Amino acid sequence: MANHDFRWAFIGRALMVLGYFSVVGYQLYILDDLIALPAGLNPPAAMAILAPVSMVAVALSTVVGGLLSDRWNRRKVFVGVSATLAGLVMVVPVASPTWTGMLVFSALNGLAFGCFMAVDTALVTLVLPRAQDAARDMGVLNVANAGPQIIAPFVASAIVTGLGGYTPLFLAGGALSLIGALAILPIRGVR
User: Fold this and answer.
1) What CATH fold (topology level) applies to the domain 2-182?
2) How much is the pTM?
3) Cα–Cα distance between 27 and 39 in angstroms, integer?
4) Nearest to 75 by CA among 123, 16, 12
5) Most buried residue, 4, 83, 96, 171, by CB count within 10 Å?
6) Is the pLDDT of residue 178 over 70?
């Protein structure tokens, strides 16, 4: 069961990270090509505002999500809900391609990603196949973090050019996050 649970945790994280970084890595282009920015605000200046909004949200949800997950001794629900939120908020810039839409998107996406990463890390430590191989297995899990970040620009580029723009990119990023949320369901060894 431990290998089964670890495999699903790996898959869930890889999909969530790929969905997140496929969109976030293209944010400057999205701001330049899709979003109606206020007069006088250029895309680099907009990024300088969105990045701290997202970082504050990530920090806040990391702490709050981690504390609540520990207090209630529940991991799967926090991981599943945060991955689902990350998937659903991808429609915000599609429905509202405005500066306000991007601010809302950045805050909600940051909240989702921060909680996911904090609690998923705790979940993974509970599903490691063998205690004596914990360091190796955590190194393997790092592939689920780094690998998707490496391929995300290529995936995003293929989606934007092949499917005709940023709307398909948001929808694909959302779908990847939602599938990542579903990958948590088969995990049996953790509540």
Assistant:
1) Growth Hormone; Chain: A; (1.20.1250)
2) 0.93
3) 19
4) 123
5) 83
6) yes
Length of the chain: 191
Residue appearing with tokens 């959302």: 174
Task: State how far the Cα of 6 lies from the Cα of 71, in Å rounded to an integer.
Answer: 23
Cα angle, residue 14 at apex, residues 97 and 154 outer, rounded to 5°: 60
What tokens does 125 get? 């430590």
28 and 47 Cβ atoms separated by less than 8 Å: yes
Residue type at 139?
Answer: G
CA distance 66 to 179: 22
Question: Which residues, 6 or more positions from 141, have their beta carbon under 8 angstroms from its beta carbon?
Answer: 9, 10, 13, 124
- For residue 1, the model assigns a pLDDT of 52
The predicted-structure confidence for 14-24, as pLDDT tens digits, reads as follows 999 999 999 99
Asked whether 48 and 101 are in contact (CB, 8 A), the reply is no
Coil, strand, or helix at residue 111?
A: helix
Q: What is the pLDDT of residue 129?
A: 81
What separation, in Å, do the N-terminal and C-terminal C-alpha atoms of the chain show? 14
C-alpha to C-alpha distance for 15 and 21, rounded to whole angstroms: 10
Residues near 124 by beta carbon (within 8 Å), at least 6 away in sequence: 6, 9, 13, 138, 141
Q: Are 30 and 157 in contact (CB under 8 A)?
A: no
C-alpha span between 131 and 110 (Å, rounded)? 32
